[in-house]
Amino acid sequence: QVQLVESGGGLVQPGGSLRLSCAASGFTLDDYAIGWFRQAPGKEREGVSCVGDSDGSTYYADSVKGRFTISRDNAKNTVYLQMNSLKAEDTAVYYCAAGGQRAFTTAQAIGVMFSSLYNRWGQGTQVTVSS
After folding, report:
1. How far apart are CA 72 and CA 70, in angstroms?
2. Are the C-beta atoms of 2 and 120 separated by less than 8 Å?
3. Between vectors from CA 62 to CA 60 and to CA 63, what angle results, nearest 5°?
4. Closest CA to 129 of 96, 95, 94
5. For residue 48, how many C-alpha atoms fall within 13 Å in the half-sphere facing its CB?
6. How far is CA 66 from CA 63, 88, 102, 122, in A?
7. For every one of its 131 residues, what pLDDT tens digit does the chain have, with 9 covering 90 and above?
8. Contact, 50 vs 33, CB < 8 A?
9. Closest-CA residue to 93 (of 64, 129, 69)
10. What's the chain look like in SS3?
């Protein structure tokens, strides 16, 4: 069965950290660009970070640059999103998604992640930042 499964979400205080995981089954993650998106209640889905399929180049939205780190563990067929210095505005459901390399190169070139360029999605994991 081809699927992506996110985990690692939860409740954390402002300034805290969480590490999200995106595990793939039925296909190999390093053949794809992998992106993390988030959607807060009443807001549109926002691209947060993505990693290319070849040399591991990364992209970050300005809202998370310097606080979030995306990484791959090809042996575990898993992509991670390390989130530090979390803020209340980071509260959202976080989704990982797989797409072609164009999904990554477009983000690098334009500075926006397009969800339409990703064709496999996980079910999401809730992140709540609150005191």
Report:
1. 7
2. yes
3. 105
4. 94
5. 26
6. 9, 17, 24, 25
7. 889 999 999 999 999 999 999 999 999 998 999 999 999 999 999 999 999 987 789 999 999 999 999 999 999 999 999 999 999 999 999 999 999 999 999 999 999 999 999 999 999 999 999 99
8. yes
9. 129
10. CCEEEEECCEEECCCCCEEEEEEEECCCHHHCEEEEEEECCCCCCEEEEEECCCCCCEEECCCCCCCEEEEEEHHHCEEEEEECCCCHHHCEEEEEEEECHHHHHHHHHHCCCCHHHEEEECCCEEEEECC
Amino acid at 103: A
Retrieve residue 119's tokens.
């064709």
The residue with tokens 């205080």 is 13
- Side chain identity at 25, as an amino acid letter? S
Tokens of 3: 């699927």
